[in-house]
Amino acid sequence: MRYALAGLVLALLAAGKAESFAQEPASDLWTMTAEGNRHEASGANCLEDIPGFAPLAFMAGDGGNFLGLCSYIDATGTGNAGLRVRRYVAGQGESQEAIENDRALMEPSPGGSPPLFAVRMGRVALGDGKDGGRVTVTKVRNGFLVDCFAEGATLNDASAKIALVCAN
């Protein structure tokens, strides 16, 4: 697992440096390209094709803090992966851990620096009905929260998948 997590960290660092969170982005539009979809304001890219997954399934935002979701269905049925872009809303999140991670990223302590990214790990029921693990990595890009997530039979499997999705 140490090697998969090390690969995950390298992929995250290669995907982009920590972005300033103080500026207000001008746009939250997505553009479609031959390679996939791109959230222009955050710079998040969703490739049309990632090896081992069905082609990209895109869901537009809801007009609130959720701005878009790129989903990839694992061809083996051992867990999906994806990328989600959202606006920060203090006190809102899918879990207490997510809320705390978002706060650490967007509201660093006075005189402190925000972390480069935050990670959540947990159990999940996979598409084949078996228990597995889910890894969610959140980072700030141009004032937006970008969540990369992956599921797998183990957290090690999920970490290997997330490196594919987050590397863009």
Write the layout of secondary structure elements.
Blueprint: H1 2-15, E1 30-32, E2 36-39, E3 44-47, E4 57-60, E5 66-72, E6 81-86, H2 96-106, E7 118-125, E8 131-141, E9 144-152, H3 155-166
Antiparallel strand pairs: 1-2, 2-3, 4-5, 5-6, 6-9, 7-8, 8-9
Helix pairs in contact: 1-3
Characteristic terms for this protein:
168 residues, alpha+beta, six-stranded antiparallel beta sheet, three-stranded antiparallel beta sheet
Strand order of the largest sheet: 4-5-6-9-8-7
Q: What is the global morphology?
A: globular
- Work out the number of β strands: 9
Q: Biggest β-sheet, characterized?
A: 6 strands, antiparallel
Q: What percentage of the residues does DSSP assign to strands (E)?
A: 25-35%
Number of individual domains:
1
**Which percent bin holds the helix content?**
10-25%
Low-confidence stretches: 1-26
Average pLDDT works out at: 82
